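Comment on this:
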Amino acid sequence: MNKIPLLAALLLAFPVRASLPADTHTVTEEERPRPIDSVVVTGARYRTDVRHLPMTVSTVGRGRIEQSHEPSLLPLLTEQVPGLFATGRGIMGYSVSTGAAGQMSLRGIGGAPQAGLPTTGLMVLIDGHPQYMGLMGHPIADACQSMLTERVEVLRGPASVLYGSNAMGGVINIVTRKSKDDGVRTGVHIGYGSYNTLQTEATNRIKLKRFSSVVTGSYNRTDGHRPRMGFEQYGGYAKAGYEIASAWNIEADINLTRFNASNPGSVAAPVLDNDSHITRGMTSLALRNEYERTSGALSFFCNWGRHKIDDGYSPGSEPLDYRFHSRDEMLGISWYQSARLFEGNRLTLGFDWFRFGGRAWNQPLDGSPRSMLADKTLHEVAAYVDFRQTIGSWLTLDAGLRIDHHSHVGTEWVPQAGISFLPSNSAEIKLSASKGFRYPTIREMYMFPPQNPDLKPERLWSYEIAWSQRVLDGRISFGVNVFYIDGENLIMRVPVDGRPKNINTGKIENAGAEAQFAWRISPAWSLDANYSYLHMAYPVLASPEHKLHVGAAFARGRWNVSTGVQYVGGLYTEVKVNGRGRSTQENFVLWNLRGSFRVCKVVELFVRGENLLAQRYEINAGYPMPKATVLGGVNLHF
C-alpha cells in the first residue's frame, strides 16, 4: 500500500492553518512569529490584519528565506505554500523559450493549458508592481531572487479586482528589503557545491535617521548535471528611501539581472547550441503616505528586457543561420488611497495605467535585413473600488469592483465579495467569491503561426471556504480551506483548416483542499506541515494532484538546522492536446536538509543538501532532475 497518499489524507482530516504568519522558522524568541495581528499588504494594498481579509494569504519571511540558502525563491515557495508549484530542470536556473522551467501554477491556474505555450494566470509583483515580459506576457522565473526579498506574500485565489489581468489564479508579491535599525550592516554569502555550482551575494544596508538604503549584488553559476546545461547569472539591486515627514516617504529602486543559459534538449531529442542570453531590468519610484485614518501611494514603474536566443539544431542537421532577438518594456502608473470614513469602515479607490509591448525579429547571421516577427504596443487602463466594513470585533464584510479596459480587446468588469468571521480571538472562518481574468498576450494575438488578433479574455470564478484555529497561546496553529474554480475561454492551440490557431475554446474546472499546520514545541524545536489536493476535470501541466511537505527545525545557541520531506503525486509533465499526444504523470519524494553553525559574531558556516534520497524523477518531460546534491559555504556579517 502506498503510505504517502494515506499520510496526506490523514493530514487533511486533521485541519491545519490556511495561512501562516511571516517567518515561521524557529530562531530566537524575539524572532518568533506572532499569529495574532499578522500584517500583510497584498490582499488590500494597505497594511491590514490578515484575519480580516476574506481571501487566503500565505507569507514567507526573511528568516526562512535566509535559512534556505537558495538564490531563487521558487524552491522555497513550492515547499511552503499549499497549492503552489514551480517547475525545475536542474540544480540552478530556469531560462526561457524551449526547454525552460520556472513555470508557476497555483491551484492549477498558471500552468500551460497546452504544451509549449506559457500562460500568465499567476501574477508576480515586486512591491506591488507587475513583473512580466511585454511581448510574451509571462513572468521571468530567474528574476524571482532571494537577494532583494524581505518577505513573500502569496494570495491564493483570484486577485483581479486589485491587480487586473494575469492575477486570475493568484498573486506572488515580493516585498523588497528595508533597513530597520540605525547603522550600517554588510553581509557576504559564498557557497560552492555539486556540478561546480557557485553562488555568491553581497549586501549593504544603511539607515541614518530619515534615510535608508539597500544595495546587493550576486553572481551564480553551474555546469549543470547534464552536458551543455550550464547556467550563469549576475545581477544587482539598489533601493533608497527618505522620510519626508512623519506620514510621508519616498522610495526609488532599480533591479538588473543578466543570465546565460544552455538547453541540451530532452533525452530523446537532444539539441546543440540552444543558448539564451537574457537581460531584465526594473525600476520604480513611489511616494507613500500613512496617516491614522488614511494611507495610499502614487508610483511609477518600468520593466524592460533584451533577449537573444539561438534555438539550436538537432545532431546531424545544419546550425541555424539566424538568431531570435527581442526588446520589450512595460511602463505603469499606479495610484490608490484608502480611508476609514467611520468606525469599522475602510474604503479603497485605485487607478492603474499600463503600456506594454516591444519588438521581436529574426536576425540573419550573413548581415541580411532582419525578419520582423512583431512590433506592437498596447495599453491598459483601470479603476477599482474596494469596500470593507467590520461589525463589532467578529465580522468583516468585503466587496470590490474593477473596470478594466484593454486598447485592443475591450472592457472587462471584475467583481468580488467575501466575509471574514471571527468567532473568537483564536479562530477564523472565511468565505469568498471572486472573478479572475486574463487578457490575451501580444504573442498569442500577433506572433508566430497560431496567432489570432480576435482572441477574447480568459475568465473564471473561484469560490472558497476557509477555517483556521490557534491553541496553546498560539503555539499550535492549524486550518483547512476548500475551493472550486470554474473557467472558460481559455486560449488553446487547435487546428483550423489544417493549420494551428489560437482559439478561446478551453475550459478549466478545478476543485481541491489545502491544509497547513505549525507547532512551536519548545524554544528550540518547531514542526510545520502543509498539504494540497487538486482535482482537475481538464489536466493542466505543472499542477500536481497531491503535494505534501513536512518539516522540522531546531535552533539553539550557535546551531540552526531544518529538514523537510516533500511528496509530489500526480504531477502532469505531459498532457493530451485535442486528443493528440499523451498524458504523463510523475510521483516522487524529496528529502532536503539545511544547517548552519555560527563560529563567531562575524562568521557562519552553512550546508544545504537536496534530494538526499537520490530520487530519479522529471518535472519537465524528458529532462531528468539531478540526484543528490550538496552545497556548502560561509556567511559573513559585519
Confidence is low (pLDDT under 50) at residues 1-37, 113-118.
